[in-house]
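Postdoc handover notes: sequence design on the structure in folder B. Input tokens:
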């Protein structure tokens, strides 16, 4: 049986990171309250970086990502932050989807990343 390692999330019953079978999953929302989609995305991706590092991997090892946003008309703002985060090397670009959905309270963006170890 494989060992599953979990990193506690901010809310009871949820992990912010999980490692099993050579892969790590991270989920994050912004640590700042603002109505600026770009700033929330930057903050969220910084948090993803910290979670991935805690699991001994990084964004260059990301395989897939799903970005949830509350208003698809702000996708360009999210994309700007995303492209700054992933950088210019296409070898480091994960497969990514963007989905409009409702999120909790002041959260505008939530990101889920799966990365190889």
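Designed sequence:
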């Amino acid at each position: 049986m494989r060992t599953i390692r979990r990193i506690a999330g901010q809310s009871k019953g949820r992990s912010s990171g999980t490692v099993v079978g050579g892969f790590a999953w991270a989920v994050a929302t912004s640590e700042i309250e603002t109505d600026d989609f770009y700033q929330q995305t930057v903050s969220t991706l910084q948090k993803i970086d910290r979670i991935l590092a805690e699991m001994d991997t990084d964004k260059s090892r990301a395989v897939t990502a799903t970005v949830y946003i509350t208003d698809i008309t702000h996708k360009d703002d999210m994309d700007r932050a995303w492209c700054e985060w992933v950088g210019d090397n296409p070898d480091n670009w994960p497969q990514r989807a963007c989905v409009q959905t409702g999120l909790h309270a002041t959260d505008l963006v939530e990101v889920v990343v799966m990365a190889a170890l």
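Context for whoever picks this up: The mean pLDDT is 97. Don't rerun without checking with the PI first.
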